[in-house]
């Protein structure tokens, strides 16, 4: 068990809150510059998520500030700690990595705050960092052991072969992954993801997470990947990862998954490739004779993925096309023209009782989460994965409204 923080440390960290609020983004940017200079650490990060307006930078900035603000009331950070621990397990973070982060963070605080970063401040933040780090290390070790001890589970990286490639739409491909050792695999919780350690020719090592788009199985996993413009990993998977290609994957991870043993009404709400965890959830619900309402938004029929699977598995399926083509209209292959709106959700779903699971682009999730809150849906009935504070959801919704 981690040693309690001293009162001196608590007081000193709290006193840095105004400076963190003003200079947090600079500190995080400086910290990442130092971390990414280390080749071993650089492979742990998605380079496309770096930069001044990076959501990853914003999320860490807010996490550091929240830690300082709540250092006397750490139970309010429990959900964030669980989310971070799951992400770390997916990426196979080890205790030795924490030392690199500590050095980079403390050096960044010193570099940005200059004379205000006194020896007392650096000592306090060092103690506070390692207090939280040891909590995370302990929880991550627990998750590693639990996963490895479960039937079909493993620790570290495991080889999988691409057994089949399926072109789902113009820019989305599914990959059936089978264990190279021929042994059973862990049945994932519907909604979880796999993390991959990819070795891309001409690029090098890349770490990526992809949601599992199939129901739990001891035989295989399916991931469904959108080809992103400029995306190094997704482009390689689409263009070069042929059937038979071996990929290194960590065991399923993530705390966003369908809750079991509940009979409440469920609404699954997705946009774009955000449907991947929803298909996994639908397969489980259908197998258990559990009714689901599935709402999915996409641009048009050219980008619509797995429509037959979604309709066959859900009690009620409503498809939104933002910009349907004349062919779409002739084929009548969608239900609503335009975007999902909070007003539509309030009118057409059971906001008094249903549980909502949401996945999609940031602006879409902002609309859905904030819209459901405004409609009176309790927080404990809204499930989603979002890295950042409520203010970022609001900003994302404003940007979506302007688009």
| Average of per-residue pLDDT values | 90
User: What is the CATH superfamily label of the largest domain?
Assistant: Globins
**Assigned CATH architecture of the largest domain:** Orthogonal Bundle
Low-confidence stretches: 387-391
CATH fold name of the largest domain: Globin-like
Sequence of secondary-structure elements: HHHHHHHEEEEEHEEHEHEHEHEHEH
List the total number of helices. 14
The coarse overall form would be globular
- Helix share bin: 40-55%
GO molecular function: FAD binding; heme binding; metal ion binding; nitric oxide dioxygenase NAD(P)H activity; oxygen binding; oxygen carrier activity
Keywords: Detoxification, Heme, Iron, Metal-binding, NAD, NADP, Oxygen transport, Transport
Cofactor: heme b
Pfam family, one: NAD_binding_1
Task: Give a concise summary.
Keywords: Detoxification, Heme, Iron, Metal-binding, NAD, NADP, Oxygen transport, Transport. With 403 residues, the protein is of the alpha/beta class.
